[in-house]
């Protein structure tokens, strides 16, 4: 009885995961710099293979995490475009905008180190000071 219950549970989980995977449309991600924007035609072109994207009422725009609009998109802005589906014309479902000035200002060096070497260095300094104080005390007596 227990094995039948486990088998049915495994089947239910597999069917749930499979249906979720089938329900999601495929999405493609592109990044590049904006070469042109046509607000009348609701299109923009990026320099990555000179791809032109169409936008619609469902397209969402963000600039540094805040809500934006197609009119906020400027030539030279760096964008990340999510295209849902594989149809032609390319329809952008989400556009993340980062202006070229903001990109340069927000550049940071990668965090490659940790604070452990500093803690070790502080320990060595404290040890050295302790030895120095002890030697000074011996010298004075």
Overview of this structure, please?
A hairpin with a 4-residue loop joins strand 1 and strand 2 (43-46). The protein has a five-stranded mixed barrel with strand order 1-2-3-7-6. It is α+β, with helices and mostly antiparallel strands. The protein is built from three helices and seven strands, in the order H-E-E-E-E-E-E-E-H-H. The protein has a domain at 27-101: OB fold (Dihydrolipoamide Acetyltransferase, E2P) (Beta Barrel).
Which features does this protein show?
single chain, rod-shaped, 3 helices, five-stranded mixed beta barrel, OB fold (Dihydrolipoamide Acetyltransferase, E2P), 141 residues
Helix-strand blueprint:
Elements: H1 2-23, E1 27-38, E2 43-46, E3 51-54, E4 60-63, E5 66-68, E6 78-84, E7 90-98, H2 100-105, H3 116-140
Parallel strand pairs: 3-7, 4-7
Antiparallel strand pairs: 1-2, 1-6, 2-3, 4-5, 6-7
CATH topology of one domain: OB fold (Dihydrolipoamide Acetyltransferase, E2P)
Largest sheet: 5 strands, mixed, barrel
Share in helix: 25-40%
Query: What is the straight-line distance between the termini?
Result: 86 Å
- Described by the principal axes of the CA atoms, the overall outline is rod-shaped
Which regions have little confidence, pLDDT < 50, spanning 5+ residues? 19-23
CATH architecture of one domain: Beta Barrel
Structural class: alpha+beta
Order of strands, main sheet, comes to 1-2-3-7-6
Task: Report the mean per-residue pLDDT as an integer.
Answer: 79
| Beta-strand content estimate | 25-35%
H/I helix tally? 3
